[in-house]
Amino acid sequence: MAALPVISGATCVAALAKLGYRVARQKGSHVRLACGGRPPVTVPLHSELDRGTLRSILRAVEISVDELIALLD
């Protein structure tokens, strides 16, 4: 398993868009993403996501760190 990368909220949203997620709504700096057949997830649009926050997002969308890294490339 690869190390968890340090990424921004916008980068995370872009990576999840490759899985089919789309912006459902936004309130302040938090974006709610939805995807048919997958659970919705909220991503804060911060310059750096905390490791715990990113890990929680990955658990919610049911992907591994390696899959996230593949989406970032």
Keywords:
single chain; alpha+beta; Metal Transport, Frataxin, Chain A; three-stranded antiparallel beta sheet; 26% strand; globular
Secondary structure tally, helices: 3
From the N-terminal CA to the C-terminal CA, the straight-line distance is 17 Å
Q: Residue share in helices?
A: 25-40%
What class do helices, strands and sheet pairing give?
A: alpha+beta
> What is the CATH C level class, in words?
Alpha Beta
CATH topology: Metal Transport, Frataxin, Chain A
Computed CA radius of gyration, to the nearest angstrom: 11 Å
Strand residue percentage:
25-35%
Low-confidence stretches: none
Largest sheet: 3 strands, antiparallel
Describe this protein's structure.
This protein has a single domain (9-72), classed as 2-Layer Sandwich (Metal Transport, Frataxin, Chain A). It is globular, with a radius of gyration of 11 Å. The chain is of the alpha+beta class and 73 residues long. The mean pLDDT is 95. A hairpin with a 2-residue loop joins strand 1 and strand 2 (30-35). A three-stranded antiparallel beta sheet has the order 1-2-3. The chain has helices at 9-17, 51-61, 65-72, and strands at residues 22-27, 30-35, 38-44.
List the helices and strands and how they pair.
Elements: H1 9-17, E1 22-27, E2 30-35, E3 38-44, H2 51-61, H3 65-72
Antiparallel strand pairs: 1-2, 2-3
Task: Give a brief description.
It is built from 3 helices and 3 strands, in the order H-E-E-E-H-H. The protein has helices at 9-17, 51-61, 65-72; strands spanning 22-27, 30-35, 38-44.
